[in-house]
């Protein structure tokens, strides 16, 4: 919902609804907003390895290595609309810079990468073959695939491999990494080094040519660094370590902050499309399920680095003990209204969805009404915050948010 100028037709309706809201607040006849948002389960029960939101379409793509398929989830209905067979045991995925193509690593067919046409949601006849076994993939640079391939027979030790799709050649490098991210213009690569014995290294490379040039490197300051995540505006790098998430400036590689859930077992971090909210998931090795460990999601304000919410998952959040796949365990919808997380155990995972189907639906009845605006006003009066009520995404819940909800409830443009 956008905060547009209210039309004359809707204005009278909104004023009347506002009066009802004020009366409801005065009478204190308002349900208390939940500390944890509504959640639901998309039942799948398969070995799910990665998920990625389509920036241009209301879809979430999920690699299902049980059915050898990519599942297409409609993020407006949270229904699986399609299952696209891609090949043996799909794991990590990446969407290219123009959002036309999805590339899928096939771990059951070493050296093979499937190609999916996102416009038609069909698997292309082309299979990309490499000389090595890829683990992670980035497809942001046009005409190139940047892969992390396994070496030394240890799944967490990886080297950068560059595939030129224009002439079917590849360049194997000596650059070691545990995870990589590439900017949207395809010119800069960031990585977390996998081979430091004392601290994970963060490195920045210029990749305007097929010979990556090191620009700068720093220590992450943590004993381990695993996944990294670029902020939506590409100004920051978030580094997932086991106990916290240090944050670095992409321009200087100086550390600018830390997200500390005050809990061991950080397994993934993701950000809402606006970059103002970060979600940090914690989990544990399944054999230690009863050792006072929990599967939680921590909600952070990325401006202040403060923890705003603690959400409990309905089950065990996926934990990849051996780092076999660097696929996302957490992902937001492209509009930022929902958070998706893998929950389950072993090779049996479902997707838990946090958030209302419609932002602003604070009583979760599936429709926007003045009652939702009343809840927003109650939050504003208490100085409290809730992501579903913060419809203008300014990390505050105010009367403006309530008015936007009323506008939508009245059907105003």
Record the SSE blueprint.
Blueprint: H1 8-26, E1 39-46, E2 48-53, E3 59-64, E4 69-74, E5 79-85, E6 90-95, E7 101-106, E8 112-117, E9 122-129, E10 134-138, E11 144-151, E12 154-164, E13 169-176, E14 179-182, E15 188-192, E16 201-206, E17 213-219, E18 228-230, E19 236-239, E20 245-249, E21 255-259, E22 266-271, E23 277-282, E24 296-301, E25 306-312, E26 330-332, E27 339-345, E28 348-354, H2 370-382, H3 399-409
Antiparallel strand pairs: 1-28, 2-3, 3-4, 4-5, 6-7, 7-8, 8-9, 10-11, 11-12, 12-13, 14-15, 15-16, 16-17, 18-19, 19-20, 20-21, 22-23, 23-24, 24-25, 26-27, 27-28
Helix pairs in contact: 1-2, 2-3
Written overview of the protein:
The N and C termini lie close together (10 Å). Helix 2 runs antiparallel to helix 3. The strands form 7 sheets. This protein has a 4-stranded antiparallel β-sheet, with no helix packed on it. It is built from 3 helices and 28 strands. The protein has 413 residues and is mainly β. The protein has helices at 8-26, 370-382, 399-409; strands at 39-46, 48-53, 59-64, 69-74, 79-85, 90-95, 101-106, 112-117, 122-129, 134-138, 144-151, 154-164, 169-176, 179-182, 188-192, 201-206, 213-219, 228-230, 236-239, 245-249, 255-259, 266-271, 277-282, 296-301, 306-312, 330-332, 339-345, 348-354.
Q: Spatial order of the strands in the main sheet?
A: 1-28-27-26
Count of helical stretches:
3
- Average pLDDT score: 84
| Rg from Cα | 22 Å
The first-to-last residue Cα distance is: 10 Å
The count of strands amounts to 28
Class derived from helix and strand content = mainly beta
CATH superfamily of the largest domain: YVTN repeat-like/Quinoprotein amine dehydrogenase
